[in-house]
Write a structure and sequence with these properties.
With 334 residues, this protein is mainly β. The protein has a single domain (2-333), classed as Lipocalin (Beta Barrel). The chain is built from 5 helices and 15 strands. It has a 10-stranded antiparallel β-barrel. A hairpin with a 6-residue loop joins strand 14 (286-300) and strand 15. The two termini are 46 Å apart.
Length: 334
């Protein structure tokens, strides 16, 4: 009878203890504070870029095709892992007379969870200008413009944050945390991408490389997949200021194909990278930061022996405000 009575008394204590443990934080709160339960509203100024760089295997100058993009103003919000944003380009800043017109569509998913970070990108551009200025032009003045040249980039990268107890990507990049002490983490994962470039005529002007023009290579396809290893570190200065540096290097299986007057396929392994840089000021209710995210994809053609380098990314200046919400609003959002 005594045992039964003691069991009845200790059961509430046991369940209370288990309930308390279930509400313990899933990270070291002395290193960062999470705002997963808050609504984060942000305004930002951003600019994206897309570059196709062609590096010849002979003694000729490297050249780069640039998309003519403009800065954009945008706004958005985040709750837990769900984010929505909308932006419009400042078209009055365009310089179509000098650099031509670019039709640019860019879709990005940047998910920074406690243990995982996911990058998914789909970028479609048509209309490029060639740099440096004067190359490909008979008079050596102005930019060589290719309205017909287009690129398509679709990529996915998934990375595990190994030191998720003390390091948070969200503190610098999605404003859903406040890193209070400096910390870093190794990153392991995998990435895959598909890239294509196409034009109505050869990529390289005949005035620049007549042999490439004779080959008539006007289409290029690339598929790469492989593992990735990286490291990220977030430096905290005077409690509120932060600087983030992150770099991922992937060794990828590569399949590329050039299409022109003849066709050539090449299989090999290439190193690609993704980087993240950010700096700013973090406080309890708001965040002000500047971020630069970018990636490079490398490969080489077989017919032309040219190296193809694809650079894509963007810069963003962000002001974010965090709003605490009550129990009823949380139920509605859930």
């Amino acid at each position: 009878m005594k045992r039964t009575f003691l069991s009845i008394l200790t059961c509430p204590v046991f369940f209370a203890s288990a309930s308390a443990q279930s509400h313990l934080p899933d990270h070291d709160t002395t290193y960062y504070k999470s705002y997963q339960g808050a609504i984060i509203v942000r305004a930002y100024l951003s600019r994206k870029y897309s570059v196709l760089k062609l590096v010849p295997g002979i003694d000729l100058k490297s050249m780069s095709y640039h998309a003519n993009t403009v800065p954009s103003l945008g706004a958005g919000f985040t709750y837990r892992s769900l984010s929505f944003s909308y932006s419009r380009g400042l078209n009055f800043l365009k310089s179509e007379d000098r650099k031509g017109r670019t039709d640019f569509t860019d879709l990005q998913l940047r998910l920074y969870k406690r243990k995982w970070t996911i990058d998914a990108v789909a970028s479609f551009s048509r209309g490029y200008y060639l740099s440096p200025q004067g190359i490909g032009k008979a008079n050596g003045e102005g930019y060589y413009i290719r309205r017909d040249l287009g690129t398509q980039i679709v990529g996915l990268g998934v990375y595990r944050v190994l030191n998720d107890k003390k390091f948070s990507y969200g503190a610098a990049l999605s404003q859903n945390a406040w890193q209070k002490k400096s910390a870093g983490s190794f990153l392991i994962g995998a990435e895959a991408c598909y890239v294509a470039a196409n034009g109505d005529s050869a990529f390289i002007p005949s005035l620049t490389d007549s042999s490439f023009a004779k080959q008539g290579i006007r289409k290029f396809h690339l598929f790469e997949i492989g593992p990735s290893l990286g490291y990220a570190y977030l430096l905290v200065i005077a409690h509120n200021y932060f600087v983030l540096g992150s770099f991922n290097l992937g060794l990828n299986y590569s399949y590329s194909r050039e299409i022109g007057n003849s066709r050539g396929t090449k299989i090999g392994a290439w190193g690609n990278y993704i980087f993240r840089l950010a700096a700013g000021y973090n406080a309890t209710r708001w965040n002000l930061g500047l971020a630069w995210l970018g990636a490079r994809i490398n490969t080489e053609g077989r017919t032309s022996a040219y190296k193809y380098l694809f650079d894509a990314g963007g810069y963003r200046l962000i002001y974010a405000r965090r709003f605490a919400i009550g129990y009823k609003m949380k139920q509605i959002l859930e």
